[in-house]
Amino acid sequence: MEVFYKGKWGKICRNKWNLKDVQVICRQLGFKRAVAEFVVADIKNEDMPFVMSDVNCNGDEPELASCPRIDGKLNVDCQNDDTGAQALCEPKSKLVIF
Questions:
Q1: What backbone torsions phi and psi does residue 85 show, to the nearest 5 degrees?
Q2: Which of 23, 50, 57, 85 allows an S-S link to 12, with CB 3.0 to 4.6 Å?
Q3: How high is the pLDDT of residue 98?
């Protein structure tokens, strides 16, 4: 998961990242619903800093910025590996390819 923070792109650390956080980000991005919080090992960007950590949504917030979290630094200390938080969301309608 990448966010634009203080004029730069950065990652969200997976510390405390869970399905409630995914529910908020999926809703914010216009998806039907959250499906899962997951980690895909081959998605890493070691050059991109962590800018947000310890996101703690209750699941009802309208956007991620409304959730308690640690940010304000351009390099948050992340206790996990270099893989940022990830979300799987269900689209509002089925994709039709012509």
A1: -60, 150
A2: 85
A3: 43
Residue 84 confidence (pLDDT): 86
Beta bridge partners of 42: none
Residues 6+ apart with CB under 8 A from 66: 24, 57
The Cα–Cα gap between 77 and 28 comes to: 26
80 or 36, greater pLDDT? 36
Residue at token pair 């919080």 = 37
CA nearest neighbour of 54 among 72, 31, 30, 27 = 72
Q: Residue 6: is its pLDDT beyond 50?
A: yes
Q: How many CA atoms lie within 13 A of 94 on its CB side?
A: 3
3-state secondary structure the chain: CEEEECCEEEEECCCCCCHHHHHHHHHHCCCCEEEEECCCCCCCCCCCCEEEECCCCCCCCCCHHHCCCECCCCCCCCCCCCCCCCEEEECCCCCCCC
Structure tokens at 53: 């950590």
